[in-house]
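Build the 3D complex.
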Amino acid sequence: MATVVEIVVAALIVIGAFFLLVGSLGLAKLPDLMRRLHAPTKATTLGIGATLVASMIAFTAATGSLSVHELLIAVFLFLTAPVTAHMIAKAHMLRHPALQQQLPSPPGTGWATLAPAPVDPEAPRTGEMPPAP
Amino acid sequence: MRRLVPHPVLSVVIAVVWLALVNSAAPGHVLLAAVLGLAIPHYSNRYWPDQVVIRRPLRIVDYIAVVAWDILVSNVQVAWLVLFRSGPRLRSVLVTVPIDLPHPTAITVLTGTITMTPGTVSADVAADGRAVLVHCLDADDPDAVVHQIKDRYERRLKEIFA
Amino acid sequence: MIETACMIAIVAISAAALLNLYRLAAGPDVLDRVLALDTLVINAIALVVVAGIWFASPVYFEAGLLFAMVGFLSTVAFCKYLLRGNVIE
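Done.
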Protein backbone atom coordinates (compact mmCIF):
# COMPACT_ATOMS: atom_id res chain seq x y z
CA MET A 1 0.00 0.00 0.00
CA ALA A 2 2.69 2.41 1.06
CA THR A 3 4.65 1.64 -2.09
CA VAL A 4 1.67 2.50 -4.31
CA VAL A 5 1.43 5.88 -2.57
CA GLU A 6 5.17 6.38 -3.02
CA ILE A 7 5.01 5.57 -6.73
CA VAL A 8 2.09 7.97 -7.29
CA VAL A 9 3.77 10.78 -5.35
CA ALA A 10 7.10 10.28 -7.12
CA ALA A 11 5.40 10.19 -10.55
CA LEU A 12 3.43 13.38 -9.83
CA ILE A 13 6.57 15.21 -8.67
CA VAL A 14 8.45 14.24 -11.83
CA ILE A 15 5.48 15.14 -14.10
CA GLY A 16 5.15 18.52 -12.36
CA ALA A 17 8.86 19.26 -12.72
CA PHE A 18 8.72 18.27 -16.41
CA PHE A 19 5.89 20.72 -17.16
CA LEU A 20 7.63 23.51 -15.22
CA LEU A 21 10.78 22.93 -17.27
CA VAL A 22 8.80 22.93 -20.54
CA GLY A 23 7.03 26.14 -19.53
CA SER A 24 10.32 27.90 -18.83
CA LEU A 25 11.82 26.44 -22.02
CA GLY A 26 8.94 27.96 -23.97
CA LEU A 27 9.56 31.30 -22.27
CA ALA A 28 13.19 31.21 -23.37
CA LYS A 29 12.60 29.77 -26.84
CA LEU A 30 9.47 31.26 -28.42
CA PRO A 31 10.02 34.23 -30.73
CA ASP A 32 7.74 37.04 -29.48
CA LEU A 33 6.00 38.11 -26.28
CA MET A 34 2.44 37.14 -27.22
CA ARG A 35 3.62 33.61 -28.00
CA ARG A 36 5.84 33.51 -24.93
CA LEU A 37 2.76 34.19 -22.81
CA HIS A 38 1.30 30.78 -23.68
CA ALA A 39 4.04 28.59 -22.24
CA PRO A 40 4.30 29.93 -18.66
CA THR A 41 0.57 30.46 -18.10
CA LYS A 42 -0.36 26.93 -19.11
CA ALA A 43 2.57 24.63 -18.50
CA THR A 44 3.49 26.09 -15.13
CA THR A 45 -0.03 25.85 -13.71
CA LEU A 46 -0.21 22.12 -14.44
CA GLY A 47 3.36 21.73 -13.22
CA ILE A 48 2.59 23.36 -9.92
CA GLY A 49 -0.79 21.60 -9.74
CA ALA A 50 0.82 18.17 -10.05
CA THR A 51 3.48 19.05 -7.44
CA LEU A 52 0.82 20.26 -5.00
CA VAL A 53 -1.33 17.14 -5.48
CA ALA A 54 1.81 15.09 -4.76
CA SER A 55 2.32 17.12 -1.58
CA MET A 56 -1.33 16.55 -0.55
CA ILE A 57 -1.05 12.79 -1.02
CA ALA A 58 2.33 12.62 0.73
CA PHE A 59 1.18 14.54 3.82
CA THR A 60 -2.19 12.74 3.97
CA ALA A 61 -0.39 9.39 3.90
CA ALA A 62 2.27 10.52 6.40
CA THR A 63 -0.04 12.02 9.03
CA GLY A 64 -3.18 9.93 8.47
CA SER A 65 -5.45 13.02 8.38
CA LEU A 66 -6.58 14.73 5.20
CA SER A 67 -4.26 17.58 4.16
CA VAL A 68 -6.08 20.10 1.97
CA HIS A 69 -4.21 23.36 2.44
CA GLU A 70 -2.07 22.74 -0.66
CA LEU A 71 -5.29 23.09 -2.64
CA LEU A 72 -5.36 26.71 -1.50
CA ILE A 73 -2.10 27.51 -3.34
CA ALA A 74 -3.31 25.59 -6.41
CA VAL A 75 -6.66 27.41 -6.52
CA PHE A 76 -4.94 30.76 -5.96
CA LEU A 77 -2.53 30.14 -8.84
CA PHE A 78 -5.28 28.92 -11.18
CA LEU A 79 -7.29 32.07 -10.44
CA THR A 80 -4.37 34.49 -10.78
CA ALA A 81 -2.54 33.06 -13.83
CA PRO A 82 -5.17 34.31 -16.33
CA VAL A 83 -5.22 37.74 -14.67
CA THR A 84 -1.43 38.02 -14.96
CA ALA A 85 -1.47 36.93 -18.63
CA HIS A 86 -4.29 39.36 -19.42
CA MET A 87 -2.49 42.30 -17.75
CA ILE A 88 0.78 41.55 -19.56
CA ALA A 89 -1.03 41.24 -22.92
CA LYS A 90 -2.84 44.55 -22.36
CA ALA A 91 0.34 46.39 -21.40
CA HIS A 92 2.15 44.86 -24.39
CA MET A 93 -0.56 46.04 -26.80
CA LEU A 94 -0.55 49.52 -25.33
CA ARG A 95 3.22 49.86 -25.70
CA HIS A 96 3.45 48.65 -29.31
CA PRO A 97 1.66 50.81 -31.90
CA ALA A 98 2.76 48.41 -34.69
CA LEU A 99 0.76 45.63 -33.04
CA GLN A 100 -2.27 47.90 -32.64
CA GLN A 101 -2.39 48.29 -36.43
CA GLN A 102 -2.71 44.50 -36.86
CA LEU A 103 -5.61 44.04 -34.45
CA PRO A 104 -8.93 42.90 -35.91
CA SER A 105 -11.53 45.59 -35.27
CA PRO A 106 -14.17 44.64 -32.71
CA PRO A 107 -17.92 44.99 -33.28
CA GLY A 108 -19.17 48.20 -31.65
CA THR A 109 -16.73 50.35 -29.69
CA GLY A 110 -12.97 49.75 -29.66
CA TRP A 111 -10.84 47.52 -27.48
CA ALA A 112 -10.85 48.49 -23.82
CA THR A 113 -7.07 48.98 -23.56
CA LEU A 114 -6.96 51.46 -26.42
CA ALA A 115 -10.23 53.26 -25.69
CA PRO A 116 -10.03 56.53 -23.73
CA ALA A 117 -10.85 56.10 -20.05
CA PRO A 118 -14.53 56.75 -19.29
CA VAL A 119 -15.03 60.14 -17.66
CA ASP A 120 -16.74 59.75 -14.34
CA PRO A 121 -17.72 63.17 -12.99
CA GLU A 122 -18.08 61.80 -9.45
CA ALA A 123 -14.60 60.30 -9.21
CA PRO A 124 -11.71 62.58 -8.20
CA ARG A 125 -9.02 62.75 -10.87
CA THR A 126 -5.60 61.35 -10.11
CA GLY A 127 -3.43 63.85 -8.30
CA GLU A 128 -6.29 66.28 -7.70
CA MET A 129 -8.07 66.93 -4.48
CA PRO A 130 -11.82 66.32 -4.53
CA PRO A 131 -13.75 69.61 -4.57
CA ALA A 132 -14.72 70.95 -1.17
CA PRO A 133 -18.38 70.34 -0.29
CA MET B 1 -31.81 37.45 6.36
CA ARG B 2 -30.77 39.70 3.49
CA ARG B 3 -29.19 42.15 5.96
CA LEU B 4 -27.52 39.47 8.05
CA VAL B 5 -26.05 37.46 5.14
CA PRO B 6 -25.66 39.87 2.20
CA HIS B 7 -23.50 37.51 0.13
CA PRO B 8 -24.17 33.84 0.93
CA VAL B 9 -21.67 32.50 -1.63
CA LEU B 10 -18.90 34.78 -0.36
CA SER B 11 -19.62 33.70 3.24
CA VAL B 12 -19.30 30.02 2.34
CA VAL B 13 -16.09 30.66 0.37
CA ILE B 14 -14.49 32.55 3.27
CA ALA B 15 -15.42 29.79 5.75
CA VAL B 16 -14.05 27.04 3.49
CA VAL B 17 -10.83 28.97 2.79
CA TRP B 18 -10.29 29.48 6.52
CA LEU B 19 -10.78 25.77 7.25
CA ALA B 20 -8.34 24.88 4.44
CA LEU B 21 -5.83 27.43 5.74
CA VAL B 22 -5.76 25.98 9.28
CA ASN B 23 -5.98 22.48 7.70
CA SER B 24 -8.33 21.18 10.37
CA ALA B 25 -12.04 20.63 10.90
CA ALA B 26 -12.06 20.72 14.73
CA PRO B 27 -15.24 22.26 16.23
CA GLY B 28 -13.39 25.39 17.38
CA HIS B 29 -12.07 26.07 13.89
CA VAL B 30 -15.52 25.46 12.35
CA LEU B 31 -17.00 28.00 14.78
CA LEU B 32 -14.29 30.56 13.98
CA ALA B 33 -14.80 29.95 10.23
CA ALA B 34 -18.53 30.56 10.62
CA VAL B 35 -17.91 33.79 12.55
CA LEU B 36 -15.45 35.03 9.88
CA GLY B 37 -17.78 33.99 7.06
CA LEU B 38 -20.57 36.07 8.61
CA ALA B 39 -18.51 39.05 9.82
CA ILE B 40 -16.28 39.78 6.81
CA PRO B 41 -19.09 40.14 4.19
CA HIS B 42 -21.11 42.13 6.73
CA TYR B 43 -18.38 44.72 7.34
CA SER B 44 -17.13 44.85 3.72
CA ASN B 45 -20.62 45.07 2.24
CA ARG B 46 -20.00 48.56 0.85
CA TYR B 47 -17.36 47.21 -1.53
CA TRP B 48 -19.64 44.55 -3.02
CA PRO B 49 -22.66 46.48 -4.28
CA ASP B 50 -23.69 43.92 -6.94
CA GLN B 51 -24.90 40.45 -6.19
CA VAL B 52 -23.95 37.65 -8.52
CA VAL B 53 -27.03 35.67 -9.48
CA ILE B 54 -26.34 32.01 -10.18
CA ARG B 55 -29.32 30.29 -11.73
CA ARG B 56 -28.14 26.71 -11.87
CA PRO B 57 -25.44 25.97 -9.27
CA LEU B 58 -25.18 22.30 -10.28
CA ARG B 59 -24.03 23.26 -13.78
CA ILE B 60 -20.87 24.71 -12.18
CA VAL B 61 -19.66 21.17 -11.42
CA ASP B 62 -20.16 20.23 -15.07
CA TYR B 63 -18.33 23.38 -16.18
CA ILE B 64 -15.37 22.77 -13.84
CA ALA B 65 -15.07 19.18 -15.10
CA VAL B 66 -15.04 20.31 -18.75
CA VAL B 67 -12.49 23.07 -18.05
CA ALA B 68 -10.25 20.81 -15.94
CA TRP B 69 -10.12 18.24 -18.74
CA ASP B 70 -9.34 20.98 -21.29
CA ILE B 71 -6.56 22.37 -19.09
CA LEU B 72 -4.97 18.92 -18.99
CA VAL B 73 -5.22 18.52 -22.77
CA SER B 74 -3.98 22.07 -23.42
CA ASN B 75 -0.93 21.53 -21.25
CA VAL B 76 0.12 18.50 -23.23
CA GLN B 77 -0.58 20.30 -26.53
CA VAL B 78 1.40 23.40 -25.58
CA ALA B 79 4.26 21.26 -24.24
CA TRP B 80 4.32 19.41 -27.58
CA LEU B 81 4.35 22.66 -29.54
CA VAL B 82 7.10 24.15 -27.38
CA LEU B 83 9.30 21.08 -27.61
CA PHE B 84 8.92 20.17 -31.29
CA ARG B 85 7.26 22.91 -33.29
CA SER B 86 8.36 26.25 -31.84
CA GLY B 87 9.81 28.94 -34.02
CA PRO B 88 8.43 30.58 -37.16
CA ARG B 89 6.42 27.48 -38.06
CA LEU B 90 3.78 28.37 -35.46
CA ARG B 91 0.78 29.95 -37.17
CA SER B 92 -0.20 32.49 -34.50
CA VAL B 93 -3.24 34.67 -35.14
CA LEU B 94 -5.37 37.18 -33.27
CA VAL B 95 -9.09 36.53 -33.57
CA THR B 96 -12.17 38.39 -32.35
CA VAL B 97 -14.70 36.28 -30.49
CA PRO B 98 -18.09 38.01 -30.25
CA ILE B 99 -19.72 37.25 -26.90
CA ASP B 100 -23.14 37.82 -25.42
CA LEU B 101 -22.94 37.41 -21.66
CA PRO B 102 -25.07 39.40 -19.23
CA HIS B 103 -22.81 39.93 -16.22
CA PRO B 104 -19.21 41.20 -15.80
CA THR B 105 -18.50 38.16 -13.60
CA ALA B 106 -19.51 35.84 -16.45
CA ILE B 107 -17.18 37.70 -18.85
CA THR B 108 -14.35 37.45 -16.32
CA VAL B 109 -14.87 33.71 -15.95
CA LEU B 110 -14.96 33.29 -19.74
CA THR B 111 -11.73 35.24 -20.34
CA GLY B 112 -10.00 33.29 -17.56
CA THR B 113 -11.18 30.02 -19.08
CA ILE B 114 -9.94 31.05 -22.54
CA THR B 115 -6.48 31.78 -21.13
CA MET B 116 -6.24 28.42 -19.36
CA THR B 117 -7.42 26.26 -22.28
CA PRO B 118 -5.86 24.95 -25.52
CA GLY B 119 -3.47 27.32 -27.26
CA THR B 120 -5.42 30.50 -26.57
CA VAL B 121 -4.80 33.60 -24.43
CA SER B 122 -7.41 36.32 -24.01
CA ALA B 123 -5.58 39.57 -24.72
CA ASP B 124 -8.27 42.23 -24.44
CA VAL B 125 -12.00 42.84 -24.03
CA ALA B 126 -14.03 45.30 -26.10
CA ALA B 127 -14.91 48.48 -24.26
CA ASP B 128 -18.61 47.58 -24.33
CA GLY B 129 -17.98 43.96 -23.27
CA ARG B 130 -19.34 42.40 -26.48
CA ALA B 131 -16.13 40.84 -27.85
CA VAL B 132 -12.91 39.23 -26.61
CA LEU B 133 -9.59 39.49 -28.43
CA VAL B 134 -8.00 36.02 -28.39
CA HIS B 135 -4.42 35.18 -29.33
CA CYS B 136 -4.01 31.63 -30.69
CA LEU B 137 -0.59 30.00 -30.45
CA ASP B 138 -1.11 27.67 -33.42
CA ALA B 139 -4.39 27.71 -35.32
CA ASP B 140 -5.18 26.09 -38.68
CA ASP B 141 -8.66 27.47 -38.73
CA PRO B 142 -9.46 30.58 -36.63
CA ASP B 143 -13.21 30.03 -37.12
CA ALA B 144 -12.96 26.64 -35.42
CA VAL B 145 -11.41 28.34 -32.36
CA VAL B 146 -14.26 30.85 -32.20
CA HIS B 147 -16.82 28.08 -32.59
CA GLN B 148 -15.19 25.98 -29.86
CA ILE B 149 -15.13 28.88 -27.37
CA LYS B 150 -18.75 29.79 -28.06
CA ASP B 151 -20.04 26.23 -28.03
CA ARG B 152 -18.00 24.76 -25.20
CA TYR B 153 -17.73 27.59 -22.67
CA GLU B 154 -20.06 30.48 -23.48
CA ARG B 155 -23.14 28.26 -23.84
CA ARG B 156 -22.50 26.67 -20.44
CA LEU B 157 -21.80 30.03 -18.78
CA LYS B 158 -25.08 31.43 -20.17
CA GLU B 159 -26.91 28.54 -18.52
CA ILE B 160 -25.14 29.18 -15.19
CA PHE B 161 -25.51 32.96 -15.01
CA ALA B 162 -28.38 33.75 -17.41
CA MET C 1 11.93 6.59 -4.19
CA ILE C 2 10.33 9.89 -3.31
CA GLU C 3 13.80 11.26 -2.53
CA THR C 4 15.03 10.31 -6.01
CA ALA C 5 11.97 11.98 -7.56
CA CYS C 6 12.60 15.10 -5.44
CA MET C 7 16.23 15.23 -6.58
CA ILE C 8 15.22 14.95 -10.25
CA ALA C 9 12.55 17.62 -9.70
CA ILE C 10 14.97 20.00 -7.99
CA VAL C 11 17.46 19.67 -10.86
CA ALA C 12 14.70 20.24 -13.46
CA ILE C 13 13.21 23.22 -11.62
CA SER C 14 16.66 24.77 -11.14
CA ALA C 15 17.25 24.43 -14.90
CA ALA C 16 13.86 26.09 -15.46
CA ALA C 17 14.89 28.94 -13.14
CA LEU C 18 18.12 29.38 -15.12
CA LEU C 19 16.08 29.65 -18.35
CA ASN C 20 13.95 32.30 -16.63
CA LEU C 21 17.10 34.16 -15.63
CA TYR C 22 18.25 34.06 -19.26
CA ARG C 23 14.95 35.64 -20.36
CA LEU C 24 15.20 38.15 -17.50
CA ALA C 25 18.64 39.23 -18.68
CA ALA C 26 17.96 39.07 -22.43
CA GLY C 27 14.67 40.95 -22.43
CA PRO C 28 14.24 42.51 -25.00
CA ASP C 29 11.20 44.37 -23.66
CA VAL C 30 10.42 45.27 -20.07
CA LEU C 31 7.29 43.07 -20.26
CA ASP C 32 9.43 40.05 -21.16
CA ARG C 33 11.27 40.69 -17.93
CA VAL C 34 8.02 40.98 -15.96
CA LEU C 35 6.85 37.66 -17.43
CA ALA C 36 10.23 36.09 -16.63
CA LEU C 37 9.99 37.28 -13.00
CA ASP C 38 6.44 35.89 -12.73
CA THR C 39 7.57 32.49 -14.02
CA LEU C 40 10.59 32.60 -11.71
CA VAL C 41 8.24 33.05 -8.73
CA ILE C 42 6.16 30.06 -9.84
CA ASN C 43 9.32 27.96 -10.10
CA ALA C 44 10.35 29.12 -6.63
CA ILE C 45 6.97 28.00 -5.23
CA ALA C 46 7.45 24.58 -6.82
CA LEU C 47 10.96 24.37 -5.34
CA VAL C 48 9.61 25.19 -1.87
CA VAL C 49 6.81 22.62 -2.17
CA VAL C 50 9.22 19.91 -3.35
CA ALA C 51 11.53 20.75 -0.43
CA GLY C 52 8.51 20.39 1.88
CA ILE C 53 7.80 16.89 0.55
CA TRP C 54 11.47 15.91 0.79
CA PHE C 55 11.91 17.04 4.41
CA ALA C 56 8.32 15.94 5.28
CA SER C 57 7.68 19.22 7.04
CA PRO C 58 4.44 21.19 6.74
CA VAL C 59 6.03 24.59 7.53
CA TYR C 60 7.01 25.04 3.87
CA PHE C 61 3.35 25.49 2.95
CA GLU C 62 3.17 29.02 4.37
CA ALA C 63 6.26 30.05 2.44
CA GLY C 64 4.70 28.78 -0.78
CA LEU C 65 1.43 30.60 -0.17
CA LEU C 66 3.20 33.88 0.65
CA PHE C 67 5.38 33.55 -2.46
CA ALA C 68 2.26 33.01 -4.59
CA MET C 69 0.56 36.12 -3.20
CA VAL C 70 3.59 38.42 -3.37
CA GLY C 71 4.45 37.21 -6.89
CA PHE C 72 0.94 37.84 -8.20
CA LEU C 73 0.68 41.26 -6.57
CA SER C 74 4.06 42.44 -7.85
CA THR C 75 3.30 41.30 -11.42
CA VAL C 76 -0.04 43.09 -11.40
CA ALA C 77 1.57 46.20 -9.91
CA PHE C 78 4.26 46.21 -12.63
CA CYS C 79 1.63 45.85 -15.38
CA LYS C 80 -0.61 48.50 -13.83
CA TYR C 81 2.32 50.88 -13.71
CA LEU C 82 3.12 50.24 -17.39
CA LEU C 83 -0.56 50.60 -18.34
CA ARG C 84 -1.47 53.69 -16.38
CA GLY C 85 1.72 55.30 -15.12
CA ASN C 86 0.79 54.80 -11.48
CA VAL C 87 -0.09 51.91 -9.18
CA ILE C 88 -2.66 53.21 -6.70
CA GLU C 89 -5.16 55.68 -8.10
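The beta strands of chain B are 93-98, 120-125, 131-136.
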